[in-house]
Specification:
A hairpin with a 3-residue loop joins strand 5 (121-131) and strand 6 (135-146). The protein has helices spanning 2-20, 26-33, 58-66, 82-96, 148-159, 163-166, 172-180; strands at 39-44, 67-76, 102-106, 111-118, 121-131, 135-146. By secondary structure, it is α+β, with helices and mostly antiparallel strands. The protein is globular. It starts with a helix and ends with a helix.
C-alpha cells in the first residue's frame, strides 16, 4: 500500500511540475537549440564591460551591477538553411508576442528589445536582431533590481562603444554584429 501511495505521489508531483513549466519560453528555446546545427550559443560575462566602467555614471554603474548574466543564441543563414531560418525566426517572434514580454525599443523589421517585469523591477531584457541575409541573434539579459531608467542609461553608453577596437569578446554575438555591419 505504501508503494502505491509513493508511486501516486511521485506521479502527481510530475504532473504539477510539468504543467507549471512554460515549454514555449525563450529560455527553453535557447536551451533546446544551443547545440543544434546552424546555431551558436554563448554566455557573455558582464565583465566585458569593465573597460568602460570608468566612463559609467552612478545610474549606469547600478544597472551594470544589477546584471546577473547574458545568454546569446545566434543562427546564421545560408543557402541550405533558409527554410530553417524562416521557421526558427517565426518561433522566436511567436515567443516574444507572449503577454509577459513588453516592448521597449522597436528596430522595425530588423529587431526588437523587450522586457519582462515592470519598469521598476525588470527581470529580463531580450534583444532580438534579425536579417534575412545574415540570420538572427537573440540575447537574454537577466537582472536583479534593474529598472527601466538604469537600463536605458547603460544601453546608451554601450551603444556608443566600438567593441572591436577595444578587443572585447562578446562571444558569438560579436561575430554576429561584425557580420551585420
Amino acid at each position: 500500500m505504501k508503494t502505491l501511495q509513493s508511486i501516486i505521489s511521485v506521479f502527481v508531483l510530475l504532473i504539477c511540475f510539468s504543467s507549471c513549466s512554460n515549454k514555449n519560453s525563450l529560455q527553453n528555446y535557447i536551451l533546446a537549440n544551443a547545440e543544434n546545427s546552424g546555431f551558436s550559443s554563448s554566455s557573455i560575462p558582464k565583465s566585458v564591460l569593465k573597460p568602460i566602467a570608468s566612463q559609467m555614471n552612478e545610474a549606469q554603474t547600478e544597472a551594470y551591477e544589477a546584471i546577473e548574466r547574458v545568454n546569446v543564441l545566434a543562427f546564421r543563414v545560408s543557402e541550405t538553411t533558409k527554410d530553417a531560418y524562416t521557421e526558427e525566426n517565426k518561433k522566436i517572434k511567436s515567443i516574444l508576442k507572449q503577454e509577459q514580454y513588453q516592448e521597449l525599443i522597436s528596430m522595425g523589421s530588423r529587431g526588437i528589445v523587450k522586457y519582462t517585469g515592470d519598469e521598476n523591477s525588470i527581470d529580463e531584457i531580450v534583444i532580438f536582431y534579425t536579417d534575412k541575409n545574415i540570420g538572427f541573434a537573440v540575447a537574454r539579459i537577466i537582472g536583479d533590481d534593474m529598472t527601466m531608467n538604469k537600463f536605458m542609461e547603460l544601453y546608451q553608453l554601450v551603444a556608443q562603444q566600438d567593441f572591436s577596437e577595444d578587443g572585447m569578446d562578446l562571444g558569438v554575438f560579436s561575430n554576429f554584429i561584425n557580420m551585420a555591419q
